[in-house]
Write a structure and sequence with these properties.
two-stranded antiparallel sheet, 180 residues
């Protein structure tokens, strides 16, 4: 998963980075599923995994990753997409205007009236809502109580890798070895 996350963060073509993000989603789901099965081996491991399962239900990032994998398996709608160019903002009042301007070097920046958190993205993989069983799961706003600033795959992938590494490290002492 670390290799896929490195591709996501790289300057590789958008198609490669999008595929790598989908690999991160799928590998994370596979790790979770294998640990779930391995944790059935001992009461201590079962108790440990129950806490992880509860965290997945309550943590926006973990819930999103779970639903993104399910959506990828059961629908044709992807939970991320290539953006040659995109602007994102949050309505702060009764409405507003969101646009673009360009600096003297030709780089775009957001201009707005009544909008906050304006971001301009170029050549990025942006997360979309994951639609599973008729429910939309929006990209996560936080993980473990910490705000997530951007909804790009390169910003989310390191959080996912760190969480998976933590789970695997804890499981090594509790669960029998996991076979492929």
């Amino acid at each position: 998963m670390s290799i896929a996350a490195a591709v996501v963060a790289s300057e590789a073509p958008l198609e490669e980075r999008e595929g790598a993000w989908l690999d991160v989603v799928n590998i994370f789901g596979t790790i979770y599923s294998k640990l779930e099965q391995a944790a059935k081996a001992t009461p201590e491991a079962t108790k440990w995994f129950a806490k992880r399962r509860a965290e997945r239900k309550s943590d926006p990032l973990l819930q999103y990753m779970h639903q993104a994998r399910n959506a990828g398996e059961h629908s044709i709608v992807r939970s991320a997409g290539k953006a040659e160019f995109a602007v994102q903002g949050t309505v702060t009042g009764s409405g507003g205007m969101l646009g673009l301007a360009f600096d003297s070097a030709g780089r775009p920046y957001g201009v707005s009236d009544g909008m906050g958190d304006v971001k301009v993205f170029e050549q990025e993989i942006l997360l979309h809502a994951a639609r599973n069983r008729g429910v939309n799961y929006r990209p996560p706003q936080e993980h473990r109580g910490q705000k997530i600033e951007a909804h790009t795959a390169k910003d989310i992938a390191p959080l996912v890798v760190a969480y998976a590494d933590e789970m695997l490290s804890e499981a090594r002492g509790l669960c029998p070895p996991i076979e492929d």
